Predict the 3D structure of the following.
Amino acid sequence: MTFTRREALVLGAGGLATITLAPAAMAAAFEDAIAAFTGGAAAGEGGIEISAPEIAENGNVVPVEVSAPGAEEIVVFAPGNPAPAVCNVKFGPLAGSQRLSTRIRLAKTQDVTALARMGDGSFVQVARTVKVTVGGCGG
Amino acid sequence: MISRRDFLQATVAASAILGGSGVGAWAQIAARQQLTQDQLLEFDTFGNVTLIHVTDIHGQLKPVWFREPEVNIGVGEVRGLPPHVTGADFLKLYNIEPGTPEAYALSYEDFTALAKGYGKMGGLDRVATVVKSIRAARPDALLLDGGDTWHGSYTVMKTGAQDMVDAMNMLRPDAMTSHWEFTLGIDRVTEIVDSLPFPFLGANIFDAEWDEPAYQPYEMFERGGAKVAVIGQAFPYLPIANPRWMFPDLSFGVREERMAEMVQEVRDAGADLVVVLSHNGFDVDRKMAAQVPGIDVILTGHTHDALPEPVMVGQTLLIASGSNGKFVSRLDLDVQNGQLLGFRHKLIPIFSDVIEPDGEMAAHIDATRAPFKAELEEVIGQTDTTLYRRGNFNGTWDDLICNALIEEREADIALSPGFRWGPSLVEGSAITREDIYNATAMSYPNAYRNEMTGEQLKVILEDVADNLFNPDPYYQQGGDMVRVGGMGYRIDVTKPQGERLSDMTVLATGEAVDPAKTYVVAGWASVNEGTEGPAIFDLVEGWIRRKGTVSVDPNTSVQVEGA
């Protein structure tokens, strides 16, 4: 049995942190999830927009909206969460628009990331930094 | 009561600048002569539309001293740009002679000496005189209030801000926006808003549950043959910087896309001029002006900057009108067929000994304060040090508050929030109860006493530092750094969050702060519901009363790098 480098990293990190995933493991899980979605293809820019607050008012319910006209499928990731995958939405040929809106929980400040698989099989990607703050000193 | 002191000439910003292509030199009249009300108000009425802007009055009905900041660091693209220019650099940038009334009004240099000579500034009765004078020249001038009006004084607390509401109504504003207003609690805000004879605007205030607009976003006015749209933008980070439980059903945010939609909507409705009445803070407005096309004027607020000239971002004029009633901005505009063809601007300094109080407003203010006169004027102690708050890292008022917190709550370390409101008090002054409330009055005043580890302290300080020094203005909250008593630190403002602070040191022992060790920390203005402890104004009053005369040592406990 052989391990890929990424699997080795996951295992190594898992050995160090038993309760929360170490950053390296989370990054790896995120990269794996993206690779699984795109099949390893590079994702382009443009044609996809993400809307989220710059700073979360409540990290437990952060509104996120993603729009990618012409997309067949949109996925959203919270790479800084213990489980980065947020949702996976497929749009049928009769869908009036290719847009999703939801609320997600964010464990900490991170780049919320969305990818879309377009009608021609290409992929596009967008990210937005959402800060989760302790707050309290605006004046 | 009002002595007509000898003043040097000071018409702050008698600027006559035409065309959107740039800002001309600030007219500087060097001749020594007496300062008069006529000079302060002198203005050649221009164009067909006049805007009058007041903002961040923070409940100050009476004239105050207000020392401008010594440290006001800009990061990233705005490093070294106004308003991040202070002291001698500021005077040089705007061609102001040291020691002049403009220097006193706009910078901190020689503040104590100049304050004794030039006296207090502001007072809503003087503001009323200025507004009336502008309306005499332009009867349909629009008066726009940028918010932070119903907050910040003893009488605001005792009347639920009715004192400010009534006084402002006498000025007949045409619209306002908001921030600290919401710390009155949503029920009181709704009660006041329902009573206002003018719109309370907030394009970026939404219902938190359904994400639908919660307040009127804009108002259209017909002025001088032009359609003027005024879009309101409340402070974006109210539920984060202030207690969310006081207005649990509201959501705010910068919401740049929403602003772009509103600009488009008012343009489609035929607006010839688009004005944003903003409580974003200056750097956020500067970015928004660059990002959102079609805004002619942003009347900025929140960060309390006073700039004698507009800052131009592309074709957008940014106006900064100071705080605490110290200034009124007048902006005359030539608007023709949907085009802003020219402007003339003046930041009018409200020298309280020069501008005659408006009789009607003065009488109203006196009547409002009369029931509280004895409490307001009671002398609690004296100060040997000039007390002020503004500055990115510390001010003597907060040093005093931290000293009081450490002693009264028997703490190792004290935290005082980086608010920008709160007038100054010149050395040798009596400290009255009103003075203490001016620096501390709020609706969540409990002075807590908690145990925190060194690591928790670091996380909090890093978090606040990022609210101030994040290079992207949209992530800034517009306050100053939390003030720390009993602990020193080093900060590199150019580093990312988590890496800015180092050398955290317990001042009493000189030992490094141990991440694993627990410290007793006292502070106030926690945004958490149910915070326990005495009200900060009572705590500070008790401490000053015991001391009799207070003085504050120079603060050298914060070492700043990368500024």
